[in-house]
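Re: weekly structure request thread

Next one in the queue (94 aa):
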Amino acid sequence: MHEDSPAAARTTAAPRTPARTAPALAESLSASLPEPLSASLPEAPPPGPPAGHSATTIERGSFCLARCSCGWSGPARRSRDRARTDAAEHLAAP
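Done, posted below.
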């Protein structure tokens, strides 16, 4: 026996209002500023590891430790995340 498929339910949606896009918002903000915001900010150097440092993590069994190309080695950790944090702290240290 053949059955007809149920009729598609009709829905009515409220009419959409156009959303403001980011460029339009930026243009309206730049019109109210006396000078571009980027012109008043000093240029920062790109973040990165100090010269001669390149840290990575190494797994040994169930432990993970951070090592750097300068010879530094962090403690063995069971948490890989903590070993990565050790490496980041080493790179951030002066």
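The longest strand covers residues 55-60. The chain has three helices and two strands.
Next request, please.
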